[in-house]
């Protein structure tokens, strides 16, 4: 199943971007929350490739360049003809004093600080820097990284959008696409609303959306996902576990949207778990497979830090789920009635 191909088609330049439905999110390779060594990182990437995963997503932010550099080593072993690669632009990495390092959620990072820049020069420099770290100019997709209010604040995002559209950032992306240096452009963000706004402003091919269309959240069904279908825009779904709770269940310390889960979310996850248990299905399997039921969603990309976690992701992804489970989740009001599920397919 991981080797099957779906297509996020750039119908503007006729360059198809082929995605394995189960992709690999490379944030953990940047030492997300915990340090891993280079040997473990390479073994994890090899396990993903050997399992049939052929789409890899990374970003300069992940470990302040460490994720891209580690992926570069693996790319020398993988078949460039079948591999699909995406990274992100908008964050520049600059040398700095040790007290100015921007580690965010990453540990043991290089001595760098992050500077946001969505102008023409910023996008071009970000792309060139990523090419150097990755050791390849075969980057299929470029995503504007975190150009949303969650990162910049309500006023700040307006400034960043002005950089994008008035100071040449979008022009840089389209130049890279139109000259064939990349095949598709989009944004990698944590909210669907900014994606919908970007679609109203310009011509994008797809979005990497962290969460927001999961067993716990289906608001994009109202306007955003129908717009994606109308515009032939593909969605890559990161964060299918809502930053943890749909993987762990409603345990003490469970996290939702990168914070301790509130009581109402804990209760809803308990109910989801009970219905899944009635169908002998792990909650995590339903969470991973649910987003792909919508035809706008082309790939889901959980991360992994060890070969064992890769194998777990593949096993979860390939778990057979009874159509009756989805019907029961709807009958209990736990997912929306209009949420596509497998039995809706012709």
Name the descriptors.
346 residues; oxidoreductase; two-stranded antiparallel ribbon; globular; alpha/beta; D-threo-aldose 1-dehydrogenase activity; 12 helices; 8-stranded parallel sheet; AKR; TIM Barrel; single chain
Task: Describe the SSE topology.
Layout: E1 6-10, E2 15-19, E3 24-25, H1 38-50, E4 55-57, H2 66-75, E5 84-89, E6 91-95, E7 112-116, H3 120-134, E8 141-145, H4 149-166, H5 169-178, E9 184-189, H6 192-201, E10 206-210, H7 224-231, E11 234-238, H8 245-248, E12 255-256, E13 259-260, H9 263-278, H10 283-289, E14 297-300, H11 307-317, H12 323-331
Helix pairs in contact: 1-2, 1-11, 3-5
GO molecular function, one term: D-threo-aldose 1-dehydrogenase activity
Enzyme class: oxidoreductase
Keywords: Oxidoreductase
Give me the number of helical elements.
12
Overall structural class, as computed from helix and strand content, comes to: alpha/beta
Order of helices and strands: EEEHEHEEEHEHHEHEHEHEEHHEHH
Mean pLDDT: 94
Percent of residues in helical segments? Answer: 25-40%
Strand order of the largest sheet: 3-4-5-8-9-10-11-14
Spatial gap, N to C terminus = 19 Å
The 3D shape can be described as globular
Spans of at least 5 consecutive residues with low confidence: none
Overall tally of domains: 1
Annotation, overall tally of beta strands: 14
For the largest beta-sheet, the strand count, sense and barrel status come to: 8 strands, parallel
Q: Write down the CATH class.
A: Alpha Beta
CATH topology, what is it called?
TIM Barrel
| CATH H-tier superfamily | NADP-dependent oxidoreductase domain
> Per DSSP, what share of the residues sits in E-state strands of 2 or more residues?
15-25%
CATH architecture: Alpha-Beta Barrel
User: Mind telling me the C-alpha Rg?
Assistant: 19 Å
Organism: Celeribacter marinus
Enzyme class: oxidoreductase
EC number: 1.1.1.122
Keywords: Oxidoreductase
